[in-house]
Amino acid sequence: MTANIPFPAHPFGQQIDQHNIEQRLAQANGWEAKNRLLVQLARELPDWPAELRTQERLVSGCESRVWLHIREDRGHFQISADSDSRIVKGLLTLVLTAYHDKTTGEIASFDLERWIEKLGLLRFLSASRGNGLRAITREIVQQTQYPHQ
């Protein structure tokens, strides 16, 4: 049971929104600079309690281990995520920025892949990372469409 475990709060989707990410990545020239920025953003993710790193929270379809924790609060979904890979944690900041504190409809209608392409990152992603992001997105959409299953 996770009722007594504090939700890992983070600034993504609220203080750090899509516009902020777009501005910061636009100023980063080239993959190395963009990658450095993603790693810096990943440092803003909180340490995850070990109690949340459970098998049931693992996202299947990711090469690195990725855990998701989603809860509903008055029609909006609070989403937290963690990974054992620094680069993937950086990519998770984009996922959290896109989906955290959104409604089911907002989550279902957001095209993460198109946004990542707009950010100039899609061409730098390996096939396995792209597949992993799609798996994470599918899991978020599924859990927020049917939150009590």
TrEMBL record:
Coiled coil: none annotated. Pfam families: SufE (PF02657). It comes from the Bacteria. The lineage of its organism: Bacteria, Pseudomonadati, Pseudomonadota, Betaproteobacteria, Neisseriales. Belongs to the SufE family. This is SufE family protein. Residues 24-142 form the Fe-S metabolism associated domain. InterPro entries: Fe-S_metab-assoc_dom.
